[in-house]
């Protein structure tokens, strides 16, 4: 049955009106985007393309809200998530060069409160190390602490001493948001002014990027911004996230109009309206490779070498060098990619996180630009997505798993409630409310977890926030009762384990 479903889906898709993308034909591009926007049921998308250094295409599609159907336009704010890192890196490169400070300067000389108890990390981790993800922390390590949390920058820095790096310094790529937090904080140690002030003064204001914000108050006040959507078992629903002031690693909001300006300036060696705004050397320095990520492939494309510069991924692909950075947050996906040698750039912002269009459209455009014959990457991705859904449905129907809670032992019932402490995180509480066991976290007051007993020493925690997912907790039990538990969240946030001890 499910094989037939997949074949039927593939037939319907492949026999729909085919819109082969031609980068030199804006009508073709428009048809391509509209087709895939509809297929993936994505509320809204904006795209901007720079060709030969000039804005070639800048269009908005769909709606900001599935409720009132208000349309997206080129000035609508979207979260850009980790594309923020490109601004951080260029800013840090600019101020270090201006102040004649090496990017190899140890962070402890620039960030107040930064102190690690383990060497050589404490004395040697530099600005360049965190900007190129070679600091030794593994990918997303510590991200539970900064995602939707109430911890301040200084509090986060103090937590770093509990996050022992996973690899020797400068030996391996590990994508670290905590590292970029430190990079953003280093700006004050270099200039005497905060990250926000310097970014406005050196980049946003001179480039007249009036719809790009690094302040939560300004973001909230700007009326023309999109809502965000995720795919759940109940369909596509609005995702509620905590709007906080951006940090060096993410959180900025911007319009497609402003990001086209950003690409133009980067592709023109830092010039804007015939004036040098950003030092040329700051851009070239950030585009240099510092850390090897490895060979990668996506879909049916050839393998390519990917490295990381300062705030930029660098891809060697079919004779072209691509510099890019994507962004992902609950309810949104984004991508900014450029080929500097060809004065080409594309930026794609979306208000849904259940599609691959920021990647497939990017590759479709790059292949068209390079004259590479390619199949419809978005179509192929859709078919793969439906195949996975059909296979998952087949598994779920062939193996019926009861979701009924098991009877809890008296020892669990008598000792599970109470307070717990994790050195790295802080406090957590388990309370019985309306015959359910609920988890509360000190630094995540808007996120709760419902604990369902699964037998032995395992509980499933279903978080109230979709981004945190549903995870199995292992509880540690002694003859006296529960001694603690291992807290996990969805790997989208962090794949590590936090050990909480009973108080």
Provide tags for this entry.
503 residues; alpha+beta; Beta-lactamase; Lipocalin; 8-stranded antiparallel beta sheet; 15 helices; 23 strands; disordered N terminus
Explain what this protein looks like in three dimensions.
The protein is an alpha+beta fold and 503 residues long. The chain folds into 3 domains: 1-33 and 371-401; 41-354, DD-peptidase/beta-lactamase superfamily (Beta-lactamase, 3-Layer(aba) Sandwich); 410-502, Lipocalin (Beta Barrel). 31% of the residues lie in helices and 27% in strands. The chain has 15 helices and 23 strands. Strands 2-1-15-14-13-12-11-10 form an 8-stranded antiparallel beta sheet, with helices on both faces. β20 and β21 form a beta hairpin. α3 (84-98) packs across α12 (280-287). The longest helix has 22 residues, at 377-398. The radius of gyration is 24 Å and the shape is globular.
């Amino acid at each position: 049955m499910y094989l037939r479903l997949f074949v039927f889906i593939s037939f319907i898709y492949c026999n729909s009106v085919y819109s082969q993308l031609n980068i030199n034909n804006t009508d073709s591009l428009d048809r391509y985007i509209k087709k895939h926007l509809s297929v993936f049921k994505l509320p809204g998308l904006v795209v901007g393309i720079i060709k030969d250094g000039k804005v070639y295409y800048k269009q908005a599609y769909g709606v900001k809200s599935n409720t009132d159907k208000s349309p997206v336009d080129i000035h609508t704010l979207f979260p850009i998530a980790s594309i923020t890192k490109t601004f951080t890196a260029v800013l840090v490169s600019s101020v270090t060069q201006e102040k004649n400070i090496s990017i190899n300067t140890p962070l402890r000389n620039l960030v107040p409160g930064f102190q690690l108890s383990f060497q050589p990390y404490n004395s040697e981790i530099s600005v360049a190390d965190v900007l190129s993800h070679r600091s030794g922390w593994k990918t997303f390590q510590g991200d539970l602490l900064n995602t939707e949390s109430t911890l301040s920058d200084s509090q986060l820095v103090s937590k770093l001493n509990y996050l022992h790096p996973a690899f020797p310094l400068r030996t391996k790529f590990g994508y670290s948001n905590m590292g970029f937090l430190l990079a953003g904080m280093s700006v004050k140690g270099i200039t005497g002014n905060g990250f926000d002030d310097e970014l406005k003064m050196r980049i946003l204001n001179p480039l007249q990027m009036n719809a790009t914000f690094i302040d939560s108050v300004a973001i909230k006040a700007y009326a023309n911004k999109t809502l965000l959507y995720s795919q759940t078992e109940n369909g596509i629903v609005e995702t509620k996230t905590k709007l906080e002031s951006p940090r060096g690693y993410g959180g900025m909001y911007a319009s497609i109009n402003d990001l086209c300006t950003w690409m133009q300036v980067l592709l023109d060696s830092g010039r804007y309206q015939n004036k040098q705004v950003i030092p040329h050397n700051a851009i070239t320095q950030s585009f240099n490779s510092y850390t090897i990520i490895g060979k990668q492939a996506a879909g049916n494309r050839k393998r390519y070498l990917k490295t990381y510069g300062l705030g930029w991924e660098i891809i060697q692909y079919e004779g072209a060098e691509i510099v890019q950075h994507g962004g992902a947050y609950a309810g949104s996906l984004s991508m900014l990619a450029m080929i500097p040698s060809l004065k080409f750039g594309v930026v794609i912002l979306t208000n849904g996180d259940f599609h691959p269009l920021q990647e497939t459209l990017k590759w479709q455009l790059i292949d068209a630009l390079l004259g590479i014959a390619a199949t419809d990457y978005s179509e192929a991705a859709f078919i793969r997505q439906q195949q996975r859904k059909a296979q998952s449905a087949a598994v779920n129907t062939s193996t019926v798993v009861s979701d009924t809670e098991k009877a809890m032992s008296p020892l669990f019932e008598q000792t599970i409630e109470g307070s717990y402490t994790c050195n790295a995180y802080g406090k957590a509480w388990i309370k019985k409310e309306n015959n359910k066991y609920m988890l509360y976290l000190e630094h995540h007051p808007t996120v709760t977890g419902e604990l369902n007993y699964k037998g032995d020493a395992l509980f499933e925690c279903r978080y109230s926030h979709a981004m945190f997912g549903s995870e199995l907790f292992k509880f540690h039990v002694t003859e006296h009762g529960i001694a603690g538990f291992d807290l996990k969240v969805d790997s989208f946030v962090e794949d590590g384990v936090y050990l909480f001890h009973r108080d």
